[in-house]
Amino acid sequence: MHKILMISALLLVLNVCGQNKIAVINPNAAYKAPYFADAERLQKIAVLFPVIDKIYKEYAEKNHFPGYAFGIILDGKLVYSGSGGYTDIAKKIPATTQSMFRIASMSKSFTAMAILKLRDEGKLKLDEPVYTYIPEMKGQKLTSDAPEITIKNLLTHSAGFPEDNPWGDRQLADTDAEMIAMIKKGISFSNDPGIAYEYSNLGFAMLGYIIKKVSGVPYSEYIEKNIWKPLGMNQAQWEYSKVPVNELAHGYRWINDNWREETLLHDGIYGAMGGMITSIESFSKYVALHQSAWPVRNDAETGPVKRSSIREMHQPWRFNVLNANNTYPGGRLCATSSAYAYGLSWTRDCEGREYIAHSGGLPGFGSNWRFLPEYGLGVILFANVTYAPTTSPNFAVLDTLIRLAQLHPRQLPASVILTQRRNELLKLLPDFTNAVSSGIFAENFFADYFTDAMKKEANAIFAKAGKINKVGEVVPDNQLRGYFMLEGEKSNIRISFTLTPENPALIQEYHIRTVDK
Fold it and tell me: Would the pLDDT of 450 be above 70?
């Protein structure tokens, strides 16, 4: 850490009490970010690239993909990519990682990111009513007791609009005026705002319109200038006619055992929900931006949007579904719970893995990207057949890489205060002699834990363990809660404790138990 930053971190506040100045030490100044303990993660997954090629190739053939392209992103870098088939069947133009596919609803997170950037600049608020920017929406609701729809409702598919995938996919080229004219006629609602998740392309088209009202330029221009260009996404477009002919992926539908070309739609206001066209190489830079938001740390900001705002996009804001029968490759049952974030989906599986993702589907196209923040690992898959099912192979690829390469999430270092309290606690065990006067326990502690009882319990557990041969490092749950192990001759001891939010943090909770060898 730079010397100036260290000084500002340590001397956070000067409290003036009369003539006395008291320097308050920042209790968070010594924060250490989580890290990957394995320095050979890339080498371990590189061995598996032929396996990944096979997964995508076989899946593409089975599901009649005319063409496809994929990429694997590790720690912000596109470390492997591949492709197969054709982007133009008639001209036999092969798909490559520079081929530009329409990515459909994967566009939504760009629109959401633009909204958050405008929020960060103080130009809008997420809890503002939508009618602030679309006056025609004022008073539109299913019931008289419903609240007004907010921008956050639009971001999380909780505005009460009906799911509109088949209809919405055909509105891509609609103009602003056409959308407003439809709104003026009245919206047919399926729910009241804020009580249910229901996927709405209309909602994201409205967000695109709000971006224009706030920024003064079309959503497409705002996103290009403020997200694409800073990231170096040179292969990204909204309007297909602007894409070089040899780079543009044509879309197809598999019908009657053959491919029929779908008509590409021009860019319009509904492009904010699904009109973006890009390549694997360019989109990988966007995945890298999302990966760079993790872990929480003190580094300087380097991206076009604050890391905290990107992490905000990853939070599960609106519960979606519990899939108790989810299976991984080989039939391994592992339930998942899913929610919608801001233009993204959030999933946690039975093994504690968290995925941030989004799929896309339009006539002629299907896509998916997915990454695990705590593993620094992500995948992208584009295909050019109508509603190509791209989620399953990406899940399979990530699961294969994690299991076969034996990847582990980042490790959180124990905070200085956790290690300090462990050392102080060890000096008191097992008899708790002078515990009350030690100064390491919070004011609640001896009202909740009784010294005689703790002494009796600890002595019994230490006696059962025998000679203590090793004291383990603190294994943190977070900055103020963790546990450590004592390795005994006959059995081990697990001691866990939680600290208070005070400065300095004191022990408020403590547990001890035997762990059989």
Answer: yes
Angle between helices 176-184 and 201-215 (to 10 degrees): 120
Alpha carbons within 13 A on the beta-carbon side of 8: 6
The whole-model pTM stands at: 0.93
Q: What pLDDT score does 3 carry?
A: 40
* Residue 461 burial (C-beta neighbours within 10 Å; 0-12, 13-18, 19+): buried
Question: Phi then psi for 40, rounded to 5 degrees?
Answer: -110, 30
Side chain identity at residue 353, one-letter code: R
Detail the DSSP E strand segments found in 286-416: 318-323, 327-328, 332-333, 336-340, 345-349, 354-362, 365-372, 377-383
Length of the chain, in residues:
517
Whether 148 and 129 have beta carbons less than 8 Å apart is answered as yes
In 3D, which of 360, 394, 382, 393 has the Cα closest to residue 66?
A: 382
Tokens of 335: 């339930």
The pLDDT-based confidence of 20 (bands split at 50, 70, 90) is low
pLDDT tens digit string along 276-285? Answer: 999 999 999 9
Sign (positive or negative) of CA dihedral 134, 135, 136, 141: positive
Asked if 457 contacts 463 with a C-beta cutoff of 8 angstroms, the reply is no
**321-339: buried (b, 16+ CB within 10 Å) or exposed (e) per residue?**
eeeeebebeeeeeeebbbb
Extended beta strands in 110-264, E state: 236-237, 252-255, 258-261
- Write out the residue limits of the CATH 3.10.450 domain(s) in the chain: 413-515
pLDDT above 90 covers what percent of the chain?
93
Residue 329's pLDDT band (boundaries 50, 70, 90)?
A: confident
**Residues whose CB is less than 8 angstroms from the CB of residue 177 and which lie 6 or more positions away in sequence, other chains included:** none
Query: If you ran DSSP here, which 8-state letter would residue 149 be given?
Result: P
CATH of 413-515 among 2.40.128, 3.10.450, 3.30.60, 3.80.10: 3.10.450
